[in-house]
Amino acid sequence: MNWIKTKNNSKLNLKDIPCLKIHELREEIIHENKRPVAFFGKDWGNGEVKLFIVLADDKNGELLVSSALFKKGETFYESITKDIPSFHIFEREFYEDFKIEPLHHPWLKPVRKNQKEYPFFEMEGEEVHQVAVGPIHAGVIEPGHFRFMCNGETVYHLEIMLGYQHKGVEELMVKNPSNQLAESIVGDSVIAYNTAYSQAMETLRGIKISDKAKLIRMLALEMERAAIHIGDMGAVAGDIAYAMGAAVFGVTRTLVINTMLEFCGSRFGRGLVNVGGVNFDIDEEKIQRAQQTFKKVEKDVDRMTKTMLKNASVMSRLEKTGTVSTEKALEIGLVGMAAKASGVDLDSRFDFPDELMNTLQIVRKPFKGVGDVNSRFKLRYKEIKESLSIIRKILEELKSLKDEPVLDNGYYLNQKDAFVISIVEGWRGEVVHIAMTDNTGALSRYKIKDPSFNNWYGLALAVRNNGISDFPLCNKSFNLSYSGNDL
Question: Minimum mean pLDDT among 39-43, 119-123, 244-248, 262-266: which range?
Fold first, then answer.
């Protein structure tokens, strides 16, 4: 068998993962034609590198895992990207890390280690000019360089260069794994990252957490999703000079994050999630206050969204701006919010569900988007409504579980020679953590993938044939993570 099948948050034995020749594995990948979730290498000793690949069978809720061993002196293979373009960023990262070249890759450029002599795409012609923006930006925006090729105001091509804050997070995770490190990787996705890390560690150690702890994690994740989406709707309003929307959404977001503050002492959920469950219980008094708060949040979001979408000048800025078609979204491998807005229905909450999703009877409602800023704006509204519905159900369910513990803080050892995949649907999309242990049970590799890793190239495609003045609006409608890419 050339693949081993597994589920989200299930343990594999490393020795059970098939190991093929790279040309055989390449043929298998093309034959399977499944979505890539992970494609990364590990130093295997003696000059050898093992490549691990994880594909998603979203319809069946399964993950396919296989590997290939590059022996000492093997420095190339035939690129997969030329047959399946969604592998483009994965192969670039693997080449950057191990100098094993995917031959005939169409765009083999650095992902993170790119500060010296970056090979920018060039266009020639008397009408063509370049506009360089960043890496230093106004305010608190993280560093990233944007190079526009323009004819007048029209953008022909945008090239995005990141990597300015490459921190070596994966190496830090191997040396000193902790919840504090996990929740610090991407500051606007604290709950998603900390949950993915905690689930991976719990699977490695065989820890079973209580239903109450699971529900509080799910509650916090949906609060994080709602808060960021509300804030981003305000930011979109600000970028089109609709000051009322910016103000109302800004105030409404604060209601959500202040409720998180009441639950755990941090507006962003730091310190809430822990290996073994959660650090804070939520009593009935806090539940009742939260229920009242979220009623107001929903009312205010409804009223402001409907007001904006009835405004002709707002719609003229949102509609047909920054469009990524369904075909392009599939081709380049967009995930999460960016994919759904383009009509690609991917959501790991439903594709790889926790058993509690069925208990709460949460119904999946696909979104029919056309991939423009308007679609991304409306999708945020839809997801806020869904999150608030889930939050209401969880708060009611928590009342019946008041006697359950929220944290198992016993001491457990990692299982040896193990391989675990943990996928959590953050507000941007799938956050993927993969943990591997050696024959002593120590972590030997920790791989992380943020949805922005898949989606930055989508932003580059979105601005083509748009005016350069539309870039801030397009950029905000994606709201991708620099630190999630740079790791």
Answer: 119-123
| CA 75 – CA 29 distance, rounded (Å) | 20
CATH number of 4-103: 3.30.460.80
CB 57 within 8 A of CB 49: no
Extents of the domains making up the chain = 4-103, 169-486
Which one-letter DSSP state was computed for residue 470? G
For the cut 90, the answer to whether the pLDDT of residue 87 exceeds it is: yes
Please check the confidence at residue 88 and state whether its pLDDT lies above 90: yes
The set of long-range contacts for 244-249, using a CB threshold of 8 Å and a minimum separation of 24, is 244/304, 244/307, 245/304, 245/307, 245/308, 245/314, 248/300, 248/304, 249/301, 249/304
Residues 6+ apart with CB under 8 A from 175: none
Q: Helix, strand, or coil here: 183?
A: coil
Q: Which CATH superfamily is domain 169-486 in?
A: Cytochrome-c3 Hydrogenase, chain B (1.10.645.10)
Q: Compute the average pLDDT of residues 151-180.
A: 94
Q: Which of 87, 123, 125 is nearest to 107 (CA)?
A: 87
